[in-house]
Design brief:
Blueprint lengths: L28 E13 L5 E3 L6 E13 L9 E3 L1 E6 L19 H17 L5 H19 L2
Length: about 150
């Protein structure tokens, strides 16, 4: 089975850095993550996006803990059109019947938001701002190096 789009298209690998449409023909349902513990992620803890005409259903998080520098910017999961339950998990993904989480229209908006918040932290005297900026730059640099064919 081929993914929609061109053969050279990386799919949604770079979302939210670049826009990506969801696929209404693919059913995503009855998935449980249980006893998951991660730390040190470069990007937000996860992205769960489904099409508004075919939402994700039965998505369950049980004891899922994700730690990384994103918590310093109050960022969590990016979710859209997801139905499910969350128990003993942090951060808590927002599952609902309506569009939830954060949405980012363009790469510039996403990067701008990250750096704006880090700069605000820096000028407010938050000593973790330098580390946040450095981690963001390293993460974006790694992504762009991967894409440089």
């Amino acid at each position: 089975q081929n993914q929609p789009g061109r053969d050279s298209d990386p799919g949604c690998l770079l979302y939210p850095l670049v826009p990506c449409e969801t696929q209404p023909l693919i059913d995503v349902k009855n998935i449980t993550l249980r006893n998951v513990d991660t730390y040190g992620a470069v990007l937000p803890p996860g992205i769960i996006r489904c099409n508004e005409t075919n939402p994700c259903t039965g998505i369950n998080f049980e004891n899922v803990k994700v730690r990384g520098w994103w918590r310093l910017l109050n960022k969590a999961y990016i979710t859209e059109n997801v139905f499910g339950e969350v128990r003993d998990s942090k951060p808590v993904p927002r599952f609902s019947s309506e569009k939830a989480g954060i949405s980012v229209a363009t790469e510039d908006e996403f990067i701008g938001r990250v750096f704006r918040q880090a700069i605000q932290m820096f000028f407010s005297g938050n000593n973790q701002a330098t580390r946040v900026l450095k981690n963001a730059l390293n993460g974006f640099n790694a992504i762009y190096k991967t894409l440089a064919f």
